[in-house]
Amino acid sequence: MRYILLNKPYEVLTQFTDEHGRATLKDFVPVPGIYPVGRLDFDSEGLLLLTDDKALQHRLSDPKFKVPKTYWAQVEGTVSEEALDKLRRGVKIKEGLTAPARAEVLPEPAELWERSTPIRFRASIPTSWLAITISQGMNRQVRKMCAAVGLPCLRLIRVTIDEMDLGELAPGQWRELTLEESRKLKAKFSATKNPANRKVAVKGSKESPAAPPAKGSTNPRRSV
Question: What EC numbers are recorded for this enzyme (predicted)?
Answer without folding.
Answer: 5.4.99.-
